[in-house]
Each structure stands twice: as structure tokens, then as C-alpha cells.
Amino acid sequence: MSRSFTTVKPGLQTCVQELPGRIGFLEQGFPFSGPFDAWSFRQANLLVGNDRDAAALECQFVGPSLKLDTDCLIAISGADMRPKLDGEAVPMWTTVAVRAGQELVLGAAMTGARAYIAISGGVATEPVLGSRAVFHQAGVGGHALVAGQVVPLGDNGNAGGVFTIPEDKRPVFSKDKCWTIEALKGPNDDWLSEETVKTFFSAEWKVQAKSSRTGIRLTGPEFGFSKRALNKNADHGHDPSNIIDHGYPLGAVNLAGQTPIILVHDSPSTGGFINPFTVASAALWKLGQVKPNEVLKFRSIDRAEAGALRAEIDRSTQVGVLDRV
Amino acid sequence: MLYDALRFFPGGDRAIEVELGDEMDFTINFIVHKLVAAVRDAKFEAVVDLIPELASFQITYDPDIMSYEDLCREVEGIYAGLGRGATGSLPSRLITIPVLYFDDETAACIADYRKTYPEKTPDPELVCELNHLPDRAALQRAHAGTEYWVAALGFWPGLCSLLALHPGARIIAPKYNPPRTHTPKGAVGIGGALTCIYPDATPGGYQLIGHTPAPTYDGAQRLPDFKDSLALFRAGDRVRFAPVGLEEYEDIKARVAEGSYRHDIIDYQVFSVDRYLDWAKAQGAEG
């Protein structure tokens, strides 16, 4: 019998995501995509016995209602959307056994912005360009779920016991609407005045409502530029923030005129604006949990510290962290 | 200008920007592609993805396999081994794109923007003015009168950056400020010294001068020319724009809709960089 779930209500934007994302097609303009908060995503997969990178669901702001068509294990992590199974509250960060026909309902996010639902066997949609990760805006790998959509699941391979993630291994969400985001200088910090580079790391940056998987827009102090931006070859363009089209790193703080936009998983791969700073890869998960009107403060770190933060998250997303319930 | 040496800039802990020069120029772009191909051929386990661009390229890498410093050194070594300058030949497809210049769809898009920004000169007139072209007919002749080099792809799946290969055909235009929130799929635009074809309805900033009914991106891989790839162009292809009238434009649209349209792709040519550069120099001397 084929395994699947049926979408009863799609939620605000529920997409299949997978790691490492769509690799090898940036040069044709396809972004990596993949889960915005890979930390929560991987822990959900571990809880149901999947490979930590297996395809699972990312739910944005308001979660979906799903009817499971098969017996399976599920786990919910990330933003707290008050998940219920047939009307009864179920715990997050914990394996939940589900019988065929039961309905899982997620509501609006209480804390954080994105919840993850992993299902034993993983989601088994057709990979596009080597990945099941969905780039919703361009419809690559599919779109967000729609009501009535039946989504195939993989074999129930490793599914077994009931586990939980100890609290000290889970990602810590901000409780005061203010997030500290670790970032590195470069590639184009030399296009800004020294004063502005300092200001960037001391100011408070408010997240605009127009923020999504294609970019987090920020409001904050004005940017000042250096000679490199003000006195340049005309091929770079007219605005001080223009540069000859170049590659955009994942996590780059892109400056279009005076609006900084953090480039995230579904952002453009290239373009003609400078990227003075780049968010550390180990801090990208936080951007997936930030809500509009919350505040970001950037902390300057170097590559060595970025490496230590990466290692810490990697240790927290291994099978060994699971506690048997 | 091609820099004397590569310039490396870290893009966080997983990316490196490598700059080769600071011009939109065929020679620099060709060397970018040559170096990116050599880096790809070296098959570093740490290299995750590569993006060749106009005068630079980006490496996404795994810093737990190779450090930033070591990878920069490796790339420098490969560059030193390549020899200087642009030379050699490569297979290069020639793709002809039918264009209805100054069509109604892009005209409506321009008019819509001017409702909010009435001071904006309509795109075709602005481009004529800045490039000393007397009228739209002259702009169309100049734009369709050269082959273009696919210098890079990016920003959106299948979006191409095209550089005019005829040195006398360089048309320049500023980008919209602020950008448009909507551009029709298939619009042909000029920004800086580049031409692009919008593969999908997206925001945009290039000055619009026409529209092609022939898709350059097909996410559903419905048309036969997209059976191996979702995007039509590859870097190193050449493109020519063929002006069409309304009747042919509508006919192509209908054939795209029924799924029978075939692109005009010549796949048997080899592009000699040396002969091209000699030719371009001679053209420049005449011009």
C-alpha cells in the first residue's frame, strides 16, 4: 500500500524542504532553497528515525491541517503552533505515534515563525534538479501545499521508538523580540565608510513586514559609503550601492540603495548590489524564526568563531542527542 | 580593467568572491569562465557550487573540508597555470530569439510605472536619448544588429546577462530607481551595458524595449527544447534578436501555447576567441 498524507487545510505557506537543497544550479539562477531553520528541521527528522536531511514540511506563520493516510511516526519542532492530533494537544520536540486516518492540526505561531513536521519515511515528492526542496515563488520542486493535495511518503524504514530532544539541545528562541545575529565582514565592507561599518554592528535593525524566504528586509540607520563606492568605473552603475553583477552569498546583507535585505534560502543568486556583511551559516536558522517588527542586532565574529558555532549545531543535530521517553 | 592578480573577499564562512577585474568586458568575462571551468575540473571535495559572473565568480565551499586560506591559494595556483589573456576556441550555440520591439505588453508595463513616477521618460525614448539614436527604428536596428554573448545567468532561474559582441553596438541604460514590482514574462530589457530577457514575471530594473513570445525558461519542461534543462541558455552561448511583426509574433505565441514551438538553435558552431578579438579590434578601428 502506498503511504501518503492528505492536505485538509494548507496553512499560510507549507512547503516540502530537504537538505542540502538544490546544489549545482546557482549558475543557472536556481537558489539552494532548503529549510530556513535547519537546526529544528534536522531534530524533527531524527525524532522519527529519518536521516536528518530527509524531506519534511516547513510551515510558515500558520500551520496546516493534515490527515495521515497511514500509521506513522511524526515529530514537530521549531515555532510553537500548538499542534493537536484529533483535537488533543501533542508535545513538540517529541516522537508522536499516529494511526491511519488521524488528523494533525497546527495553528498560528505563538513563538518563532516556522514549524517543521517530519514524518517517518520522509516526504517522497519527485525531486527536481536533484532535490525535493521547494522554491515556491518560481514553482521549482512544486509549490506550497494546497487543500486536497495528496503527498506521497517514503518507506517507514528506521521508525521505532519514542524520543525527545533535551531542552538544552534545542535552538533557543528570543523571548524579548530581539535577536543577536552573528555576522562576518565582507565581501564588500570596503564599499562602506568605516563609521557605517561600526554603526552596522551597534544599531538595532527592525524586520519589515515584507520579509519572506526570498529576503529579510531591515529598517535602520542610513549607510555611508567609501571612495570605492563613490568613485568607481561607470560599468558598476549609478548608485553607490551598485556593483557589476556578482554572485550573492547565502546570508549576505545586500544593500539596495539604502535598504538592507538579508539574502536567504530562496533569494536571488546574483545581482548588481553590494553585500557588505554576511550572516554566519550557524546563525541562519534564527532568521527563519524571526517575525516582522522584531529587532536584530548583529555581532561581529571571525571565521574561527563561525566554525565553532557550526560545530556546536552539528553536535546538537546528531542521533546521539535523542533521549528515549 | 583586468587586475594584475585575483582579489579574494570572504562572503561569510561558506562563500568566497573572487574578482578578476572591474569592467563589463568580453575578455574579462571569458577569462572568468576559463578559470571557473578549471576550478570545476580540479574537483575539490570542498567546492559545493560555483557562479561565474561578469568580472568575478563566487565559490560556495565547505570550510570543514578546506579552509578559506587554502582554497584561495589553490585557486591562485590554478590561475597562474592558465596563462594570461583570452585565447582558444569553444563550442558555442547560436540561438535566435524573435522579438516584437515596442510591443503593447511592455508599453503597458511602462505606462503603469509612470502612473506612480510620471517624471520617468518612457524606456525606448530614454535609451534613444542616452545613446544618441534618432528614433525607435534606429534603436531596433542597433539592438538587433549584433550577436550577444551569454556572459552569466542568475538572479532568477534562466535570467541571462547578454553582452553585445559588436563593439559598435554597445547600448547603455540606467536601471529603474526604484525598481518595478512587476515585469512581463518575455520582456527584453537593457540595464548598464547588458541586455536581458525576463524568463518569468518578476520584479525588475532594466529599461524595456520589446517582448519575445519564445520562452527562455520552462519549469514544466513542456516544450521539446527544454527536455534536458529548465533554462534555455548556458554561459558561452550566443544570442541574436530577430525583429518580427505582430502576425508572426501571434503565430509563435500560438505554437508555444500548443507545445509545438521549436527554438532556432544552431548547435554546430565553434567560437574562436582569437579571431573574434581580432575582428572586434578591426571593427573598433573602423568605427
Structure description:
The complex is a heterodimer of chains A (325) and B (287). In chain A, 13% of the residues lie in helices and 29% in strands. Chain A has 2 domains: 4-166, no CATH class; 178-315, Beta Barrel (Cyclophilin). Chain A is of the alpha+beta class. Chain A has a 7-stranded mixed β-barrel. By secondary structure, chain B is α+β, with helices and mostly antiparallel strands. Chain B contains 7 helices and 16 strands. In chain B, the strands form 4 sheets. Chain B has a 7-stranded mixed beta barrel, surrounded by 4 helices. In chain B, strands 1-2-4-3 form a 4-stranded antiparallel β-sheet, covered by helices on one side. In chain B, a hairpin with a 3-residue loop joins strand 3 and strand 4 (56-61). In chain B, helix 1 crosses helix 2. The two termini of chain B are 21 Å apart. At the A-B interface, strand 16, strand 19 and helix 5 of A face strand 2, strand 3 and strand 4 of B.
Rg measurement of chain B, Å: 20 Å
Largest interface, with counts of residues having CB < 8 Å to the other chain, equals: A-B, 52 and 53 residues
Straight-line distance between termini of chain B: 21 Å
What profile does the largest beta sheet of chain B have?
Answer: 7 strands, mixed, barrel
Which homologous superfamily in CATH is the superfamily of the largest domain in chain B? Answer: Cyclophilin-like
Please give the CATH architecture of the largest domain in chain B: Beta Barrel
Specify the structural class of chain B: alpha+beta
| Main sheet makeup of chain A | 7 strands, mixed, barrel
Total DSSP E strands of chain B: 16
Number of helices of chain B: 7
Average residue pLDDT of chain B: 95
- Give the helix proportion of chain A (percent range): 10-25%
Low-pLDDT parts of chain A are none
Number of domains of chain B: 2
List the secondary-structure elements of chain B in sequence, H or E. Answer: EEHEEHEEHHHEEEEEEEEHEEH
